[in-house]
Amino acid sequence: QVQLVESGGGLVQPGGSLRLSCVASVSIFSFITMGWYRQASGKERELVATITVGGSTNYADSVKGRFTISRDNAKKMVYLQMNNLKPEDTAVYYCNRDGPFGVWGQGTQVTVSS
Fold it and tell me: What's the Cα-to-Cα distance from 40 to each of 31, 47, 54, 89, rounded to whole Å?
């Protein structure tokens, strides 16, 4: 059984920061690469960051240098620190496995606007 619960989104001005959190009720969490995805209105969902069990990270070019993904295997949590936010970062953000499960959480809305 997979349950993913994201939180931490909100309204922020350009240049601001947010930290997203995800609780992943996944029995195999400690064995899988996790990621953060986002879906802007009218666009397809895209993968923006991944983190392996060992902590190796990878980022989409659009967020590289601004976003940092991290995880706590003991707590089964994944985080996304987002700095220097831009209006084009506005989207609903989701966590899931890299190569996602067929189940998604409700996501958390991030809106970057002045």
Answer: 29, 12, 30, 8
Asked if pLDDT for residue 88 goes beyond 90, the answer is: yes
Is-contact 88 31, C-beta < 8 A?
no
C-beta contacts of 104-108 below 8 A and 24+ residues apart? 104/4, 105/3, 105/4, 105/5, 105/6, 105/22, 106/5, 106/6, 107/6, 107/39, 108/6, 108/7, 108/8, 108/9, 108/20
For 14-34, how does the pLDDT look when each residue is reduced to its tens digit (9 = 90+)?
Answer: 999 999 999 999 999 999 999
Closest CA to 80 of 41, 34, 39, 114: 34
Residues with Cβ within 8 Å of 53's Cβ and at least 6 positions away in sequence, in order, are 30, 31, 32, 33, 73
Gap between the terminal Cα atoms of the chain: 40
Please give the average per-residue pLDDT across 29-45, as a whole number: 96
Is the pLDDT score of 1 beyond 90? no
